[in-house]
Write a structure and sequence with these properties.
The chain has 82 residues and is mostly helical. It contains 4 helices and no strands.
């Protein structure tokens, strides 16, 4: 498990967290872990690169009326063979 050292914590903030820990019958460390877990749960998940690409692809298809474009490979081959 990773250890984190926090220096220069505002004394007022530390006292409030100590009071919360005592109120919840937790250690200071457990109270801080609980607070961090609650805050982290509120952070929306970031879409994966693949999901982001699929979303952009879908948007592009919708902008072009779901029009399908031909594969340009054959056109390139014809052009090279001239």
């Amino acid at each position: 498990m990773t250890q984190i050292v926090l220096d220069n914590i505002n004394p007022d903030v530390l006292e409030k967290i100590r009071n919360l820990a005592q109120k919840h019958n937790r250690t200071l460390e457990d109270e801080i872990k609980t607070i961090l877990a609650q805050v982290a749960a509120e952070i929306p998940p970031q879409p994966s690169v693949r999901a982001s690409f699929r979303d952009r692809l879908l948007e592009a298809r919708q902008r072009h009326g779901n029009q399908l474009f031909s594969d340009s490979v054959e056109l390139l081959r014809e052009d090279r063979n001239r």
